[in-house]
Fold:
Amino acid sequence: MMFAEVIGDPIGHSKSPLIHGFWIEALGLEARYAARHVTAEGLGRYFAERATDPNWRGCNVTIPHKQAVFDHVADPGGVRASIGAVNTVFRTEDGTLACTNTDAAGFYAPIAELDLAGAPVVVIGAGGAARAVLFALSRLGVGPVTILNRNVVKAAALLSSFGLKGKALPLDATLPPAALLVNASALGMVGQPPLDLDLDPLPEEAVVYDVVYAPLETPLLAAARARDLGTVDGLDMLIGQAGLAFELFFGVTPPRDEASDDRLRALLTS
Structure:
């Protein structure tokens, strides 16, 4: 039976098995999808073992492996040079294990209707998820981008690598006004430190987007809703990127109509 997985350390929080399992059942596929705990030390061994199993169709990649994966699989699409982070590994027609990143498209889909041309944006974090977010923003013609991150030097280098104008500030800096605020870090996730931000500088038309999905209602989103700001939760990006990965794994498009998405969200939040 063909199968795919999601790998990370930790991995217990992942909702990917529920999402892919929902679509597998809906389509009646002879397939399975599971979570697999893989440490940094075991990453190379994992891919070496999976490469020999033709039933293994690929894996989603989460913290902390989104950059380390480049050392173990092919990169035919130039993901290292463009985004610099991987979230999906799949088996090509000739059996080669190749990497890609569906996070950027998954991030963009929920905000496709926003007019962000020339608008100021704030991004929290400078890791793998932030790379996908910044890649998407660099294609949208946004205005200045401010990155808040523990390592300001790393954040500044990231801005430059995507050709974005803006600045890097420490996490405890005062939030500048912005049309879009994106938490692309693990802060606020179950088992991680909280993200403590004062949202008062944001204008009333601002949108707050948190890529964290465990918990779904993060303190950041709760604070945004208390101010009646627009919000986007982590499930929107998660489901969007998962749909693209599912097609790479199993060769079929998952059901993404409104009714199906509503049932899936209900499953993920029950």
The CA atoms of residues 85 and 132 lie 7 Å apart.
